[in-house]
Structure formats: structure tokens, C-alpha cells
Amino acid sequence: MAEQDRIHLGQRTGQAVAPLDADGERVRLEDLVTATESLVQLLQVLVVDGQPVPVRGLTVAGSDGTNAQLLATDATGNLQVDVLTGGGGTQYTEADTDATITGMAILWEDAADTLTPVNTTKPLPMVQTGALPAGTNNIGDVDVLTVPADPFGANADAAVAAGAAGSIQAKLRRATQGLEDLKSLIVLAAGEAHVGAVGGHTNLVLVEKTRPADAAAYIVYDTINESASAGTLWTFSVARANDKTAIVLCAVVLSDDVTNLPQLELILYKTDITAVNDNAEATSLYANVANYLGTVTFPAMVKPTTNSTLAVAYKDDFRILAIPKTGTQNIYGVLRTLTAFTPASGKKYTVGLGVSQD
After folding, report:
1. What is the pTM of this model?
2. Of 244, 250, 350, 242, which Cα lies nearest the Cα of 294?
């Protein structure tokens, strides 16, 4: 400010202050107005980066009169703002890492109205819009790359063997053929075919033996079979299949010896006990009790007519459960005499069992 622009307020004398200039002379009113305008212009200069910048604006202070700020524009018309507190917080750049974010982060509304920062475990919810681009794009965990190039095959693919590798078409052809085979297998043909184990069959099982070529007399309880040295049991195949049971409903004994008409008895067992030779005592042993099935006591044999060539005895007033030997269809018998007689040499005896098969 020039020397002539300085303003002196004079000296306090207890009276009115008289405006004086530098020489102690009174200042003219015109000079005072000019100096005041110069002071106002000086106060309208804002120092920016150490340089005075003319500004225009108002001063704003807080409610308590502090932190006064000048609201003004610079020479280019930009509003000058001085922020004392608050603001945008820490600013981050790409690839920064921070265990505790102190700046602004993106939030989204999670379950129960909870604001959750976006992170790798809580990404922003996304919805696919539009079609997927062409290529190998997948939605979710879809693994289609491991499927063979042509898993379905061609219509001409031949059926594969059961359990063998092949196209889907080849396996379907095998499956449909198997179903067709199954259908033909379960169709019952005319005759005695059954589905599963169906009982109700009846059968007459006949076993024939020729006694030795001798006329050795029999006494009570002697055995009748084919050999006096290597006799065997009477074996009856009574079951429909291995290990299936049957019921013996009737029995018959026949012989071509029409001269002798003895009374006979048949003892049945479910296993092949020790055989007894012809003309030896058919002893019943307690050791065989676990295998004993029952006894058929026939009436005395009869010759039906004068000219008949056979003698017969029949019995049907009993029921005996026939349990075959394990793994077979067979039960076993011992035929013995209840009366003494002298047989003719080499005569035949046939024993028959009428059974109902399970």
C-alpha cells in the first residue's frame, strides 16, 4: 500500500478521534472513501499455493461461530471447498490387500436384512440373463466332457453281451432282447409245466426185485430182496424234485408166485440204512429211529382168480410223510415176512407206493 493510502486513526484525547494523515493533518472525506475501497479489494484476495487469487463469495461458520469457511469461486468459476472431517475414507487401488477394510466397501443385503461386504464367500447374487455363449460353457458342476464322443451310438449297433461295454443303443438292444427272452420263458406250454414249486401231483412208484434162485424157507421177519449175500434196500423215487417231500397214501405188493400167499410188511426210511440180505432177519434198530418214516402192514396176499398169474395185497388206510434223503428224491424200504413159507425159486416181487407230491 502506498504511503498516501495509509490511514491513521489519530490519537485518543478523550474527545472525538480526528482522522489524520501521515503528516498529522486531517484527512479529506474523499481520501477516506478511496482508502476504504482499497481495503475491501484487498480482503477479496484468496491465497492459493502462495499466490493471491481474486475471489467472490460469502463466509460461513459453524453454529458456535468457529470453523469459518469462505464460500467462494476461483478465477475459473470453480467452488472452493475445504473439508475438515469425514470424507470417503481410505481409497484402494487394484490388487491391494487389507485384512480389515477401513474405506468404503460394496455391501449387499444378505439373509435377515443383514448388510454383508462382498467377498469370495459372499459374492454378489447374480442371475443369468440371456443365452449362454456358444462353446463349452457350463452352468454349475456339469461334467459333460468325460462322456464318450458318441455315447448313444447308432441304430445299427448290435446288442452287446450281458455286462459288456458298448453304446447305449447296444445295451438297450441287449436289454430288450433279454425282456423278450424272459417273456417266452414264463409262457407255459401245454403239458405238465409249472411256475415255481407247485404241489398237488400224484404218482405211483413201482420197484421190482427178483429173489434168489433158491427155495430157502422164510420164517417170520425174514427179509425179501434180490440177493442172499449182497442184498440192497428197496429204493423209491417219490419226490417231484430233489429235497421235496411227498405223502405216501397207499401201497401195494405183487408177486408172480401164486402158490405162496404170505402176509408181508414194508418199513420205510428217509435214508439208506444198512441193507439186510435175503432170508436174513429184518431187525428193527433203535439206531435208525432218526431216519424212520413209517410201516405199512399189508394183509395176506391173494390170488384174484383161478387163472391169475399174480398174487396181490393192497393197503390205503394210512398217511406217511415221505422226506427224501438230502439231495435226492428217494426214500428207502425193507420188505419182510410176517408168516413163514417156502418160496418158489427166482420169483419176482414188486412193491408200489401211491404218493402225493409237494
Report:
1. 0.50
2. 250
